[in-house]
Prior knowledge:
The structure holds two protein chains of two kinds. Chain A is an all-alpha fold. Chain A is built from four helices and no strands. Chain A has helices at 3-24, 30-48, 50-60, 65-111. By secondary structure, chain B is of the alpha/beta class. In chain B, 44% of the residues lie in helices and 17% in strands. Chain B contains nine helices and seven strands, in the order βαβαβαβαβαβααβαα. In chain B, helix 1 packs parallel to helix 2 (41-47) and helix 5 runs parallel beside helix 9. The longest helix of chain B is centred in the middle third of the chain and has 18 residues, at 122-139. Chain B is globular. In chain B, 50% of the residues are buried. Chains A and B meet through helix 4 of A and strand 3 and helix 3 of B.
Amino acid sequence: xxxxxxxxxxxxxxxxxxxxxxxxxxxxxxxxxxxxxxxxxxxxxxxxxxxxxxxxxxxxxxxxxxxxxxxxxxxxxxxxxxxxxxxxxxxxxxxxxxxxxxxxxxxxxxxxxxx
Amino acid sequence: xxxxxxxxxxxxxxxxxxxxxxxxxxxxxxxxxxxxxxxxxxxxxxxxxxxxxxxxxxxxxxxxxxxxxxxxxxxxxxxxxxxxxxxxxxxxxxxxxxxxxxxxxxxxxxxxxxxxxxxxxxxxxxxxxxxxxxxxxxxxxxxxxxxxxxxxxxxxxxxxxxxxxxxxxxxxxxxxxxxxxxxxxxxxxxxxxxxxxxxxxxxxxxxxxxxxxxxxxxxxxx
Lengths: 115, 222
């Protein structure tokens, strides 16, 4: 077995352990538990048996299994970045609403009684 | 007819006092939105006897204008004038804006492009053009100076316009909102006063790109 395979499998096991722990502590919902468990299990399988990704690659028409893994990962990462961007924007808006509310409450206090 | 100037200010301690003194004679009231400045901007403005609204942390131009509009509305403004705290707008031109509002406009933008372009550095002209093009492409509103900070809004406009962006993208957003709400839009020519100070406060190319990205997001319904 190659070192990289050992490394990936070990990390996948570690990640699954973390996912389960988070679930038990109530920080992950059941669908997310299932998703992340499958994700890391899949990563471990592909690392141990690289041929599985080659089979999948042939089905979708990509030459090599490793290429397919990289394509799928990239798409996933880009999507994640987009989601984060939207989320951050949303948070920014909420912070602004909060800051504005504080500012205007202060303003109202200083205004009354109106001149 | 109550004319209120809304001046968003972030770390403008070195110029805000003078700007306020120059604006004072041209409006009924001044509201400074101190946007979480870390210098003495807020104290200096308070010392000048104007209304100051404080953001506890810096939230950007769009957020400041939103807060300023809300405060002006509460103070019973009939016309709101927005101008920059860095002194690049000549307060003597305020009557032109008020006149345009009185003439039936709801949203008036002071355009540096309608006057001779002298004084505007080339990279500023290009940036302004890029801003105009983006505003047109995203919101279908063609204006000559989409990034101008010198504006006037009627009370009706303030009630209608919904500011959602926080930073520089607000200039284009206001134009988009004015179009969406079918407000009557007008431009008046203004002089561009470029001091070394106001130029040093200018936006970089990367801020421009970020602004564009946020406008795209806003267009997509964010």
